[in-house]
Amino acid sequence: MLFLQTALLLTLLPCGNNENDFQEPITFQIIRISSFYSRFFTQSLGSAWLDELQTHAWENNSDTVIYLHPWSKGNFSDEELIEVENILHTFFIRLGQALYNHASQWQLEYPFELQVAGGCEMHIRDASVGFVRVGYQGSDFLSFQKNLWVPSPEGGNRAKLVCALFNLYQGTQEIIHKLLSDTCPRFLLSLLDAGKAYLQRQVRPEAWLSPGPSPGPGLLTLVCHVSGFYPKPIWVMWMRGEQEQQGTQRSDVLPNADGTWYLRVSLNVEASEASGLSCRVRHSSLGGQDIILYWDQHSSPGWVILAVIVSLVLLAGLAFWLRKSWSTYVSDA
Q1: Stretch among 3-12, 53-62, 273-282 having the lowest mean pLDDT
Q2: What domains does the chain contain, in order, with CATH numbers?
Q3: Number of C-beta neighbours around residue 6 at 10 A
C-alpha cells in the first residue's frame, strides 16, 4: 500500500518537481466553524481545502456540499460521496447535540465558538497521517489520536469531561478512524488525479514597479509588484547587478480571485542609490528566463513626459513669438 501511494503521489504531484504549489506533505482537510449564540440559535460555516486551495464549501447551516471546481468530486462515485456526506453530517449533528445536552455540566457559556478541522496528511515516503483537532474559543481543546479523544492542556477539566464522554462511543471512533486512515487518503489522491490538468497548469506572472510611501527625507521605497502567477512558489528579489539586496522586504503571497497569486516586494534606499537597482523574478512558468525590471527605466518615462511637456511649451512660445513678430512686420509694412 505504501509503495502504491508513493508511486501515485510521484505521478500526480503538480509540476513533478520542487517548484510546485503542493510540496510534500500534501494535506486535505475539512474545516467547520460553529457559533453557538444560545441553546436555540447556532450558525455553522464549512469548507474543504487541498493545501491552500479551497475545493468545497457548505451552505450555512446546511449539509449541502458546494463543489467549487469541476474536479472537486475526485474520482469518487455519487454513492460514495453521499455516504461520506451523511457520515460527516451525522458527526456534526451529534457533536451539536452533545454540547446542547451537557452545556451546563461542562460550564459552556453562551455565546461560544467551536472550530473543528479534520483530514489527512500524505507523505511520499511515509504512511498518511489522519487528524481531527477541535478548538474552543480559538484555543486547542481536544484531538483524535490512535482511536481515542485526547484533551489538550489548554482545555483544562472541561476538555477532560468531553473526552470521557466521546470515548464511550466506540462505534463512532471506528468510523472516524476509517475516514481518516482510508477514505481521506483515497479521496486526496483522487482529487490530485481528477484535477491534474488544473493543478499542473503554469501561468506566467506580470510584474511592474512603483514608488511606495517615502520612509523619510532623502529616502525612497521601491516596490516590485508580481501578480497573476501559478503555481505559488516564486522568487523575487531586488538586485544590484548580480548582488541580492539584503534589505528586501517580502509581503505574504496573496490569492487573486482567479486562483492565481500576488506578491509585493519592497526596498528602502537612499534616493541617490536607487540608480542601478533592478527587481528580478523567477518562476517555473518562465522557462528559466527571469523577468528583470530596472528602476532607472521605471523612472525614466516621467522624465520623458516632462521633457515632452517642456518642449511643447517652448514650441508654443516660439510659435506665439513668430506669429506676433509676423503681425508686427505686416502692420509696419
Answers
A1: 3-12
A2: 2-199 (3.30.500.10), 206-296 (2.60.40.10)
A3: 15
